[in-house]
Amino acid sequence: MQITSYLHTAILVADLERAKQFYGGVLGLKEVARSLKFPGVWYQLGDYQIHLMVQAQYQYLLTSEQKWGRNAHIALSVDDVAEAQAELTAAGYNIRLSSSGRKALFVRDPDGNVLELSQIEI
């Protein structure tokens, strides 16, 4: 077997409209068409997708309350982590800066899922 590419990450959410406001509104991800009948939405990031899938009673449980990066999470690249921090804070989201000293932060979506936003220097 040879893995040839990474296709998508599926994220469970309890409230689709609230999740769409975060992923599409706050993060500005581009929604794309999907053909499946169960409730959800897909977002495209280059060759990669994020699939939000509704599970009515979903609740994300942190395994590490102090260091959000030590929980299951997805990592996305941003141009400017300070700008991302300002926008997320202005939108009312709590963030945690990476304790490693990297230009990275962690944020939880409305359902508690953890996302890492990292500024990669090229």
Summarize the structure in words:
The chain has 122 residues and is an alpha/beta fold. It has two helices and eight strands, in the order E-H-E-E-E-E-H-E-E-E. The chain has helices at 16-26, 81-90; strands at residues 8-13, 30-32, 40-45, 48-54, 73-78, 95-97, 104-108, 114-119. A four-stranded mixed β-sheet has the order 1-4-3-2, covered by helices on one side. Strands 5-8-7-6 form a four-stranded mixed β-sheet, covered by helices on one side. A hairpin with a 7-residue loop joins strand 2 and strand 3 (40-45). The longest helix has 11 residues, at 16-26. The model has no long low-confidence stretch (mean pLDDT 94).
How many helix segments? Answer: 2
Structural class: alpha/beta
One letter per element, helices H and strands E, the order comes to: EHEEEEHEEE
Low confidence ranges: none
Total number of strands = 8
**How would you sum up the major sheet?**
4 strands, mixed
What is the alpha-carbon Rg in Å?
Answer: 15 Å
The CATH superfamily of the largest domain is identified as: 2,3-Dihydroxybiphenyl 1,2-Dioxygenase, domain 1
Query: Per the principal axes of the C-alpha atoms, what is the gross shape?
Result: globular
The CATH architecture of the largest domain:
Roll
Name the strands of the widest sheet in spatial order. 1-4-3-2
Oligomeric organization of the protein chains: single chain
Strand content: 25-35%
> What percent of residues adopt helix (DSSP H or I)?
10-25%
Mean pLDDT: 94
Distance between the termini: 32 Å
Q: Assign the CATH class of the largest domain.
A: Alpha Beta
Please, how many domains? 2
CATH topological fold name of the largest domain: 2,3-Dihydroxybiphenyl 1,2-Dioxygenase, domain 1
